[in-house]
From TrEMBL:
It comes from the Bacteria. SUPFAM superfamilies: Alkaline phosphatase-like. Residues 11-160 form the N-sulphoglucosamine sulphohydrolase C-terminal domain. It comes from Nocardioides jejuensis. Signal peptide: none annotated. It holds the Pfam family SGSH_C. This is N-sulphoglucosamine sulphohydrolase C-terminal domain-containing protein. InterPro entries: Alkaline_phosphatase_core_sf, SGSH_C.
Length: 205
């Protein structure tokens, strides 16, 4: 398996440099894999994070590590399942003071916790602010719609997932999406390609 620690900001969203920032250039990294059960030349569009990769390597080896939050994706390879589970995001920003008096941030050092689906990115901060991006309409993540009443239902569903994620442990960190937030492989690929194309166009790459 070949992957990377993190992406890196180089001027996007007015960040001169930096990582662990909740935008696509920072948290999206490559993942190339070869091994038993992986078809040659196949491309998957399902979401994977580092803890799930670790769990999958253990699964391939027939091993188990107690107390881990990751869920293996071995059985999903080649099924074309699309994006049907939420990805969680956590970060620490020295510039955002965590007073531990904002619901969801009472413990720990995280100053940003988010939920990512194929179409939406929802993030809450330890200062009480929140952002919501509709990646189909805003693939470069420029305008938050968190305060838009038209997104109240979507935000409510994402907030429910957020509440489950920020305090999850072990198998509870497996977060299936409701049907309204699930995208099949074709739609997931379209959204992924849209973000790549529009990001390159916007930043002149």
């Amino acid at each position: 398996a070949f992957t990377s620690d993190n992406g890196y900001m180089e001027g996007e969203h007015r960040w001169r440099s930096g990582k662990v920032i909740g935008f696509e250039p920072s948290y999206r990294v490559p993942l190339l894999m070869a091994g038993p059960g992986i078809p040659e030349g196949a491309q998957e569009v399902m979401p994977v994070n580092t803890v799930n990769l670790s769990a999958s390597v253990l699964d391939w080896a027939g091993a188990h590590l107690a107390g881990t939050d990751g869920q293996p994706f071995v059985d999903a390879i080649g099924t074309g399942r699309g994006w049907d589970h939420a990805l969680g995001y956590e970060a620490y920003f020295p510039s955002i003071r965590n007073r531990h008096d904002v619901p969801g941030f009472e413990r720990g050092d995280a100053s940003a916790v988010g939920i990512r689906t194929a179409q939406y990115f929802y993030v809450r901060y330890s200062n009480g602010q929140e952002e919501l991006f509709d990646l189909r309409r805003d693939p470069v993540e420029l305008t938050s719609v968190a305060a838009d009443p038209a997104y109240a239902e979507v935000k409510g569903e994402l907030r429910t997932l957020w509440d489950r994620f920020h305090q999850c442990r072990g198998a509870a960190c497996d977060l299936p999406l409701p049907a309204s937030l699930t995208t099949d492989a074709t739609s997931t690929r379209e959204l992924t390609d849209l973000m790549e194309t529009e990001t390159a166009r916007y930043y002149g790459r």
